[in-house]
Write a structure and sequence with these properties.
The complex is a heterodimer of chains A (278) and B (184). With 278 residues, chain A is an all-alpha fold. Chain A is built from seven helices and no strands. In chain A, α5 runs parallel beside α7. Chain B is elongated, with a radius of gyration of 52 Å. Classes of the chains: A mainly alpha (278), B mainly alpha (184). Chains A and B meet through α2, α3, α5 and α7 of A and α4 of B.
């Protein structure tokens, strides 16, 4: 009798254990807002792919059998697909916004305008998603999908690439600002060393030369970044498609990055010369 | 020759008879007598007729075979003699020349290589001028804290700017299906 009771208790405990455990997502302490947002986007994309497969199957059944039941199933699958699609677009825009915040830090004029555009797009997508549930027929759903398709081709896709371009631009801006600060500090220190008169003329001229070259590279990096900025501004003004301008922007910013790398290597040479005796 | 003939032709005839369903059986003396008596009063049995036919056929075939063999033997001998001397000589000569040619072809690339190397060895290769070891002499500013701090910051910055990837490859726009329709 006691044994039976013990067995029942053990079974009950096991049952409670399995029932009470809920799915818990592990969170890394070092995980940023962007990481969380990106993870959510990945999950939504996975869900969309599953809904898309179900839609394809329902669509083919409907086209094959053309019964009321197959039409009803196709309508349900299409609704689920369109809602999942909106979720993907919303989570992707959210990820872009978080990444831009992470890279640019403080909001400036450029990023400020971009946030407004992203928020407008998010608002439109939310309205569209909420409206889908009220569609009465399959034809209504197809019409809603086509509206979204038009908006995507004219506005949404371009906004994606504009945001991506600005993310890359802000990265280069961050490097440029840091290098400007380092170069200024190095020039100040060198001017102090020059005044102390502990180095000969040849040595001082050599270090001057390295600083001059470093400054030259830094200026070139600035020019390249301005060039990229011009492309971005022109595309916005002309309401052009950022998808086609994106690669050109990345190429120009890559050249700016290369000049910044050269400038920093010349600064390392200046330090080496200062640390080495004549 | 008749022995060879018996060995080759006889089995063939036996086989042929077995296919035709005729049995070859040895004839005993007693049976012959009875067979003769039988012949006069009754028609001959199939077996005895078959036996006479097969013996006749065998004799014909034997005669024909002997004739062919007598003609073929000297002819074959002459052909063999001709083949063995002339063609053998030609074949051997061709084989010798072929093997010499193949040997030469296999050795040719090596010979050319050696000739080329010989030419190259004649040219002098440039040698780098050795640089004397220069002892590092620290300046008065080698331990300057401000310089050391700047050096560390520049090194960190250099690593970061060299390793930075401008294009966000993980954030490429998603590929979505916008062609929703129910037309066949």
């Amino acid at each position: 009798m006691i044994k039976k009771k013990l067995v029942y208790c053990a079974l009950l405990v096991l049952l409670l254990f399995f029932v009470s455990t809920a799915q818990v997502y592990s969170q890394n302490p070092g995980e940023t807002e962007f990481d969380r947002g990106y993870r959510q986007y990945s999950q939504k994309l996975e869900d969309y792919n599953e809904k898309h497969d179900a839609y394809v199957l329902a669509r083919s059944n409907y086209l094959k059998f053309n019964t009321l039941q197959s039409k009803s199933d196709a309508q349900a699958a299409t609704l689920a697909l369109l809602q999942a699609r909106d979720e993907v677009l919303l989570s992707y825009l959210n990820s872009l916004k978080l990444k831009l915040t992470e890279v640019s830090g403080a909001e400036n004029t450029r990023t400020g305008d971009l946030y407004v555009k992203i928020d407008e797009e998010i608002s439109w997508l939310n309205d569209h998603k909420n409206k889908l549930g009220s569609a009465g027929t399959l034809e209504d759903l197809v019409s809603d999908s086509n509206n979204e398709k038009l908006r995507y081709q004219l506005t949404t896709q371009s906004l994606f690439y504009e945001t991506l371009s600005n993310i890359s631009y802000e990265k280069v801006t961050s490097f440029r600002d840091r290098e400007a600060s380092l170069l200024s500090s190095l020039k100040d220190r060198f001017n102090q060393i020059k005044g102390e008169g502990k180095f000969g003329t040849t040595k001082l001229q050599l270090i001057d030369r390295w600083l001059f070259e470093s400054d030259g590279r830094f200026q070139r990096a600035n020019e390249k970044q301005l060039e990229a900025d011009k492309i971005i501004t022109t595309t916005i003004e002309k309401k052009g498609n950022f998808a086609s301008a994106y690669e050109g922007i990345i190429l120009t910013l890559g050249q700016a990055q290369q000049y910044l790398k050269e400038a920093s290597s010349f600064m390392k040479e200046v330090i080496r010369e200062i640390k080495t005796a004549e | 020759m008749s022995q060879i003939f018996d060995k080759i032709i006889a089995p063939f005839v036996k086989r042929l008879n077995s296919l035709l369903g005729k049995k070859t059986q040895p004839v005993a003396s007693g049976e012959v007598a009875s067979g003769e008596t039988r012949e006069s009063s009754e028609p001959p049995s199939e077996e005895s007729v078959g036996r006479e036919v097969s013996e006749r056929e065998m004799k014909d075939i034997e005669r024909a075979g002997k004739g062919v063999l007598s003609k073929a033997k000297p002819l074959a001998g002459s052909v063999i003699k001709k083949f063995s001397l002339k063609s053998l000589g030609i074949t051997l000569t061709i084989l010798i020349f072929l093997s010499l040619g193949l040997l030469a072809a296999s050795k040719l690339p090596d010979l050319l290589k050696k000739a080329g190397e010989g030419q190259e060895q004649g040219m002098a290769e440039p040698t780098p001028t050795p640089v004397g070891y220069q002892l590092y002499k620290p300046s008065v500013y080698a331990g300057d804290p401000e310089i050391l701090k700047l050096e560390e910051e520049i090194n960190i910055f250099d690593r970061e700017v060299s390793g930075a990837v401008l294009k966000e490859t993980t954030l490429n726009p998603p590929t979505l299906d916008f062609n929703i329709d129910f037309k066949k």
